[in-house]
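A common beginner's mistake is to predict each chain separately and then try to dock the pieces by hand. The better habit, illustrated here, is to supply every component at once so that their relative placement is modeled jointly.
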Amino acid sequence: MSEAVDVLVIGGGISGATAARFLRPQWVLLEREPVLGGLSTQYRSGAFWFDYGGHYFHFQGANPMQRHLSEKTPFRRYARRSRVHILERLVPFPIQSHLESLPASLRRRIEREMAHPQPPEDPSMAAALRAEFGPTLYQLFFLPFLTKYYARDPRELITGMTKGSIPPPARRSGSARQKKAAQGYNPEFFYPVGELRRFWEAYAQPLLPQVRLDEPVEAIDLMDRRLETSKRSYRFRFLINTMPLPHLLSMLSGFAFPSSLPRRLRYTSTQVTNLVLARRYRRFHWVYLPQRDVPYYRMGYYPGSGTCRIYLEQSIARNGAPQDIAQSGVTGLLRGLGVIHDATEILHVSRRTIPIAYVQFDRFWARTVPGILRGLAEQGIFSIGRYGGWNYSSMAEDALTARNTALTINRQTA
Ligand SMILES: Cc1cc2nc3c(=O)[nH]c(=O)nc-3n(C[C@H](O)[C@H](O)[C@H](O)COP(=O)(O)OP(=O)(O)OC[C@H]3O[C@@H](n4cnc5c(N)ncnc54)[C@H](O)[C@@H]3O)c2cc1C
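With all components supplied together, the output reads:
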């Protein structure tokens, strides 16, 4: 016997939970894990709680979700303090707006090149950045950083994935200091008081009666409008999916797409190394690490009171494995960045791999993903969120899309 439900929501991360909070018709949320929160909650290791790498809310552009998300849990606002570690110095982020921190001759060369942007030679991300920022800054920072971050040659990627995260510097003069500080997609960010797990306790509370935990979805038949989990069978009218799009496609029957498609949607995995320190580090929220000989692309600390917890993030290419970094390597890096004096200050280490962390925007993505999402939506399957929508989005953007999806379904069922 199947259970009949108007709307089935797959996944209880920020996208699935927010959609459920706004849905009016009868719904059930299916979550594979024993807890809600997906990537934006915390996990426990020993006596400590950690995020899955730096996870801050970005509410820029008057995102209407700020009020909704912080209704039950207050959020604290932080003004970004971040740096790029390059040429053995810490240059304020974004580097293209702080060239005065580079050696004078290098600065002058980059400024000359940036004053005369060239049309890109091809539609790749590499060509767009080279054209906008000039060959010198591209070779110095963007190429090594992005190659490490995406674990792929930026010449194979298209521009969509950088969105507003690599802003061109303000070319006009006037209140320059203020403008610089405010550049990028994250000049300020928000983090819940009591940390992410407290936010989730409050946010998920009204949903719990309709949530089924430990219940992974295994198969979906679109013709029959039937879905199978590890535990039972459901019939549905609408589906909101937030698990990764390739996983959805590989479970789906009754929807035509090339069989090679799930395999050809590329992504990067991330290994997060979380550490607890005996000393307090609060200098920069995060530091970008473009150096080729350092395996990590970013180091930062988690806000919140109590113990000092920091993270290091490393990208893993498809079919690859994380570089095994000896503890001495981590200690050396953290000493070099002024985070610790010696290894005895590291009290605890915990490593977690996020199997699908960053979607890669390449030409294949552009040719296939938007059309597949449209085709699914026409059949009442809304695949949303950073992974369901196979996109590069933030938690605040995912929450907004989820709310809008729920409102669309509410209208169609009114
Ligand atoms: C290293 C890293 C750092 C990041 N930092 C930030 C940041 O600072 N700020 C920010 O805004 N965003 C950040 N993000 C992005 C943020 O994590 C995502 O935008 C957000 O978590 C996506 O939420 P979601 O609900 O769409 O997906 P998820 O959180 O992935 O939720 C999907 C849910 O689906 C469940 N699921 C999967 N398969 C099944 C199945 N078969 N059956 C049932 N359930 C299933 C999963 O268990 C999960 O709970 C970061 C991401 C990474 C990887």
